[in-house]
Amino acid sequence: MKATIIFLLLAQVSWAGPFQQRGLFDFMLEDEASGIGPEEHAPELPELEPLGPVCPFRCQCHLRVVQCSDLLGLSFNSISSVDNGSLANTPHLRELHLDNNKLTKVPGGLAEHKYIQVVYLHNNNISVVGTNDFCPPGYNTKKASYSGVSLFSNPVQYWEIQPSTFRCVYVRSAIQLGNYK
Questions:
Q1: How many Cα atoms occupy the beta-carbon half-sphere of 180 within 13 Å?
Q2: Domain ranges (residues) in the chain
Q3: 33-72 pLDDT, tens per residue?
Q4: Interatomic CA distance for residues 152 and 137, integer angstroms
Q5: Disulfide: which of 108, 131, 135, 169 matches 146 by Cβ 3.0-4.6 Å?
Q6: CATH topology of domain 55-181
């Protein structure tokens, strides 16, 4: 008798189709198998957009802090700006990968980083590069020199960039400019 009841319960479960959520409040709607469709219960709800920015893969985000230790790669994230002071909490930053985003200017605070050596900013929307964006004012005030700065595929006119902008770059061949679409 017990086996028959279990078999009947399993048979009922096997008749049910897989759950397919179509909207946020589907769990409140009655089963479509009852013959009453969701349209008869409530008006169709529009698809909801994400409530805010999405945290980059493998990073930890809390309020306005994005923690990506030992990943140092923020490429392809649709980042449009980096607030002044955002990089201050990473004093030993050596590489910054912000390529293939939507930046309109060089992130503030790079000049103050004593250890940064590589900055990837290619394929963004950067149209102006200032003389103090990468290096602090004056000469020889940065502890580590840059070994790589990529700014290619940005709308910046490379002939408008002052030569002193890259005064703390180790070798001039480390600077990549041009080739804007």
A1: 13
A2: 55-181
A3: 455 555 555 567 667 665 666 787 778 888 777 777 766 7
A4: 24
A5: 169
A6: 3.80.10
